[in-house]
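Q&A FORM
Asked by: J.P.
Topic: structure of SDR family oxidoreductase

PROVIDED:
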Amino acid sequence: MSSPYLESLFSLENRIAVVIGGTGELCGAMAEGLAGAGAEVVLVGRNEAKASARLERIAAAGGNAWFHAADATSRADLIALRDAVLARSGRIDVLVNGAGVNSPTPLMDIPEDEFDRIISANVKGVLMACQVFGEHLLSAPDGGSIINIGSASARVPLSRVFTYSASKAAVHNLTKNIAREWATKGVRVNLLVPGFFPAEQNRKVLTPDRVETIMGHTPMKRFGQAKELIGATLFLASNAASSFVTGAEIEVDGGFHAMTI
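REPLIED BY: S.T.
REPLY: Here is the structure written out as tokens.
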């Protein structure tokens, strides 16, 4: 039996959610969840072909979504994205900052251009999106929710992903700073922190020995599935469910963060 209370708590009917990085595996699943809760979802990425299968699944489930091409490291693209969504849909309620890149380059071999590329995508892109969309959210009657994607490597650096770890540590810090700045202005800013989810950007570093180490540090002894991010996404997206939550780090990691020895 459905519960009207729960439905109202997590409903995103008449809400508009922009998912930057929505053409990827993890944020794509989050986008499906947002659409399933009633939101109109804008999938954002560089490649429409990668978005097509996700858009088809959302439509088949009765959801509403569309694609907008944008480079998350371009302020001009982000402004054009924001303006296109407002022109088409009239409002923006949820922003997911999920674009990101990774590299397993050994420490002494990291070239400057690779470091700059990762920092630009993972940190600068988040900052600019918060600024660009914040211009709207801060003046919107209902405020809004920004969900930045953190990482288990942000607090204690993980081996083999040096620049990625540094960039995600910056995202965690940046998110808390913005959350503090906007706490009284109706805009909540939180972190969704996935543990180990096999995805396009991390398959290169999931060697057999690394998988064994990860499983030894994950109490649930398995990888996460992309759909397991949906519950936390809906919680953070809903003003009704998480109205007093900002600057939080919500781990979805099978207990990885709770493990020491």
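FOLLOW-UP: The chain has one domain: 4-250.
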